[in-house]
Amino acid sequence: MSEFEIVNQELTILLVDDEPDNFEVISGILYNSGYRLGYASSGVSALERLKKSQPDVILLDVMMPELDGIEVCCRIKANPNWKHIPIVMVTALNAKEDLARCLEAGADDFLSKPVSAVELRARIGSMLRIKQQYDALKASLQLRLDMANMIVHDLRNPLTSILLSCEMLDRANLPDQYQTRINRIKIAEQQLRSLTESLLLMAKLESGKMILNLEEIELSQLVNTCISDMQAIAGQKMIQMIPDLPELERPICADKLVMRRVLDNLLLNAIKFSPSKSQVTVQINYLDDLITQIRVIDMGVGIADDLKQRVFEKYEIGTPMEDIHQVGLGLAFCQMAIEAHGGRISVEDNQPQGSVILIKISSLPPGAKHPYF
User: Fold this and answer.
1) In 225-242, which positions are buried (b, 16+ CB within 10 angstroms) versus exposed (e)?
2) pLDDT, tens digit (0-9, with 9 covering 90-100), for 325-373
3) Phi, psi at residue 367, to the nearest 5°?
4) Given the DSSP bridges, would you call strands 87-91 and 57-61 parallel, antiparallel or unpaired?
5) What sign does the CA torsion over 89, 95, 97, 98 have?
6) Half-sphere exposure of 44 (CA within 13 A, CB side)
7) pLDDT tens, position by position, 114-128
8) Spatial distance between the Cα atoms of 58 and 103, rounded to a whole number of angstroms
9) What is the pLDDT of residues 132-161, one digit of tens each?
10) What single-letter DSSP state applies at residue 92?
């Protein structure tokens, strides 16, 4: 029996089974169900078929020669382009150990042989609902990404105009009282630009469309640049920015733009929640030959123990403070960005008061994995 399709409507089911008679049974049960039914006679041909088109549900036989269903399931779930496809394992095996192997491979459900018509329809209906929910979520994320791109694109031009206008006023030698207001406009423009760029990167990270531009970067140099650019904002509260950096630089492999956004967010947060005339310190040190640690230390009100994990969730804020606008997106973005680099981010208490945002990131090249992570 050659591989073929029975075409009815839009929803597609792929049966992977080395026994053609099983396809006849399944197609007979589903004949009037309104599905497009495809058939692959081996695990290898199923994987090749997925490269061309993706079904909504896969019915996968466990016992097949050459490449069995367990291995096929593992390969499908390991592929980021395929892992969302629900897989129902069709098996004559009933031992708990065998079913556990299927679950470990990533299977979503089971069907026992001989296949029951009622059970088959129910299982497929359940898996299709899961797939449709996934598709709706994916479409929603894409809409958010498109909106974020549009907003950032539309904001860049007016922000650039504001900055250019401020520079022109700078050259006009206006009285000091006007110069102070111009500086405030510059600071507001800088904060707004940082926010819009972070929102765009966050949308890309969430949608899985963020491709990191990995290169060797010198963190000390990046920290010094960030601190220099934040001096005007810190100066409003007379906060001293202190770089505590190693004498010998050790490059890390990271996306420079993303890491810059992370540092900007952490410094802006530290300045926002620090009292006037205090200090914000950025410290870099090396835990071993491969792990680089970044600590952003403030002297603010700190974060309660019960919020130390939740503070990295979107729209979650730490200790509410009067006259401070808190959205709860900055640390969420930082977590997504650092985890995309294979690192970790956490919060600790500073002594005698304040918070420490702690980042640990590997200096290994892309694709390599440090035992710590």
Assistant:
1) ebbeebeebbeeeebebe
2) 444 567 888 888 898 888 999 999 988 889 999 999 987 655 566 555 5
3) 90, -25
4) parallel
5) negative
6) 3
7) 888 888 888 888 888
8) 15
9) 888 888 888 777 767 766 776 677 677 777
10) S
Phi, psi (5° rounding) for residue 346? -150, 175
For residue 216, give both structure tokens: 């060797």
CA-CA-CA-CA torsion for 305, 307, 308, 311, nearest 10 degrees?
-160
Q: And the tokens for 295?
A: 């600590």
| Contact (CB, 8 A) for 18 and 44 | no
Name residues whose C-beta falls within 8 Å of residue 180's C-beta, 6 or more positions apart in sequence.
Answer: none
**CA pair distance 93, 57, nearest whole angstrom:** 21
Contacts of residue 177, defined as CB under 8 A and 6 or more positions apart, other chains included, come to: none
The answer on pLDDT for 5 being more than 60 is no
191 contacts 155 by C-beta, under 8 angstroms: no
**What is the model's pTM?**
0.54
Encoded tokens for 153? 């694109």
Rounded to whole angstroms, how far apart are CA atoms 189 and 236? 15
Would the pLDDT of 206 be above 70? no
CA distance linking residue 134 with residue 123, whole number of Å? 17
List the structure tokens of 331. 């640390």
Residue 261 DSSP one-character state: H
Q: What share of the chain is helix, strand, coil (3-state, %, to 5)?
A: 50, 20, 35
Q: Is the pLDDT of residue 88 over 60?
A: yes
State the Cα–Cα distance between residues 293 and 132, nearest whole angstrom: 42
Question: 55, 38 in Cβ contact below 8 A?
Answer: yes
